[in-house]
Write a structure and sequence with these properties.
Helix content: 40-55%
Structural class: alpha/beta
CATH architecture of the largest domain: 3-Layer(aba) Sandwich
Low-confidence stretches: 241-248
Strand order of the largest sheet: 3-4-5-2-1-6
Order of helices and strands: EEHEEEHEHHHHHEHEEHEHEHHHH
Oligomer: single chain
Number of strands: 11
Number of helices: 14
CATH topology of the largest domain: Rossmann fold
Shape: flat
CATH class of the largest domain: Alpha Beta
Number of domains: 3
Distance between the termini: 17 Å
Mean pLDDT: 86
Radius of gyration: 29 Å
CATH superfamily of the largest domain: P-loop containing nucleotide triphosphate hydrolases
Largest sheet: 6 strands, mixed
């Protein structure tokens, strides 16, 4: 690329250190325009940055020559004192340098992709890493960014190329005596790949829950203590409580980190028949959110209330008795006033949700799932063609090429343009 870009790469606002990144063929010229000499590669040098006779800052400067930089281009980083006026003055000085322009959102990472420093799956991992709020999200993003999916895709592709080469050899030498029947090996390779792809596809849903978060709905009759329980978990008043039944009308959400998992707790309206139109709307909304939740906590005064709620119990749901501080309960119980039983309840919820992440593989996004589904469908079609014998070998080979193209789309070798804008729109400027 001919143009050179720059941007603040650290967070905006006052800080101890602010990092300005410059990437492109005029990076060294940009530093010279600030009156500073280029330090040795990857060795920090203390330099005074100037605009004319005015000293803008005394900064640590790092240089990363191409191709060994994040973007694959010549890169210079300016580690400034993090005052807003300092950063603004340096950015203004860079903007005045001929041939430099301010970077767009995600443009540094896009250059890393285009220069072969990252593939598309790694770019997605980097975006997830920037957005990660919990330990589970961080670990999943790191696996993707460090190339786990890319490495597995290379192995899958290698087996697929092997199967295709065997098929093509049987086609090319169809009129000659071939000493080895290649079809058994081809079929073994295809069956193994389909099994792997289906396993990966199955795990994508759980991976999306890791990234987006699980939802846990708290359900019960009016005045069962749902809002009091929510407030105790939050450690603050997030839901209005009163002795008046039907106080909660809308769904109130609380985002928590539960054992490294992002979990949104839903405090819902008490489930009952009501003549109040607004309360009825709240109850309907509560039922809808409960149906879509990953797990439900039924907060009961007595076991007979479960049927009255009108929400079917599912495996993994929790049934607990409310107001454990008032009287002994026969079974798991919690108190929103004293906190009794809450830690145990959260531990059980966390364990259940952790079990649901056990199916996660290396494919973690909807895009990955669709690519693997296309590949699996093509391989199943190829296997079906081979059942008809050598006369259908060419059709089977074409199905394998379709599967290869699907695998290549996983890491951005093909069909990449339509997803780039969506991915890079999530990046901040400077990344």
């Amino acid at each position: 690329m001919d143009d050179t870009i720059f941007a603040l790469a650290s967070a905006r606002g006052r800080s101890g250190v602010a990092v300005v990144r410059i990437s492109g063929p005029r990076s060294q010229a940009a530093l010279a325009a600030l009156g500073a000499e280029m330090p040795a590669p990857r060795v920090a040098g203390l330099r005074k940055l100037r605009q004319g006779d005015a000293v803008l800052d005394e900064a640590l400067v790092l240089a990363f020559p191409e191709p060994g930089s994040f973007t694959g281009e010549d890169v210079v980083e300016l580690h400034l004192h993090g005052g807003t006026a300092v950063v603004a003055s340096v950015l203004a000085a860079l903007a005045a340098v001929d041939g430099l322009r301010h970077a767009e959102a995600g443009e540094f990472t896009r250059r890393a992709l285009e220069n072969g420093r990252l593939d598309l799956a790694q770019v997605e991992g980097l975006a997830d890493l920037i957005d990660a709020e919990t330990e589970a999200q961080r670990r999943q993003a790191m696996r993707l960014m460090q190339g786990d999916l890319s490495q597995k895709t290379a192995l899958w592709r290698q087996n697929l190329v092997r199967a295709l080469s065997l098929l093509e050899a049987s086609i090319d030498f169809a009129d000659e005596d071939v000493p080895v029947d290649v079809y058994p090996e081809v079929n073994t390779l295809l069956r193994g790949l389909v099994e792997i792809f289906n396993k990966e596809i199955k795990g994508v849903g759980a991976a999306e829950r890791i990234r987006d978060g699980f939802e846990v709905a708290i359900l019960g009759l009016p005045n069962s203590g749902k809002s009091t329980l929510m407030n105790k978990i939050a450690g603050r008043e997030v839901a209005l409580t009163s002795e008046i039944a039907g106080t909660t009308r809308d769904v109130i959400e609380l985002r928590i980190d539960l054992g490294g998992l992002a979990v949104t707790l839903l405090d819902t309206a008490g489930l009952r028949e009501s003549g109040d139109a607004i309360e009825t709307m709240g109850v309907e909304r509560a039922r809808n959110r409960a149906e879509g939740a990953d797990l439900r906590v039924f907060l009961l005064g007595e076991m007979g209330e479960l049927d009255a709620l009108g929400v079917a119990f599912r495996e993994g749901d929790e049934v607990v008795f409310a107001k454990a501080d008032r009287a002994p309960k026969e079974g798991p119980a919690v108190s929103g006033l004293t906190g009794e039983g809450i830690d145990a309840l959260l531990a059980r919820i966390g364990a259940t949700l952790q079990q649901r992440t056990a199916t996660i593989g290396t494919a973690v996004k909807q895009r990955h799932m669709l690519a693997l589904q296309r590949a699996a469908t093509a391989l199943n079609a190829a296997s079906a063609q081979l059942e008809w014998g050598s006369a259908h070998a060419e059709l089977a080979a074409e199905d394998l090429r379709v599967a290869l193209r699907a695998l290549d789309s996983l890491i951005g070798k093909v069909d990449v343009e339509q997803v780039l804008d969506v991915i890079f729109s999530s990046f901040c400027i400077g990344k």
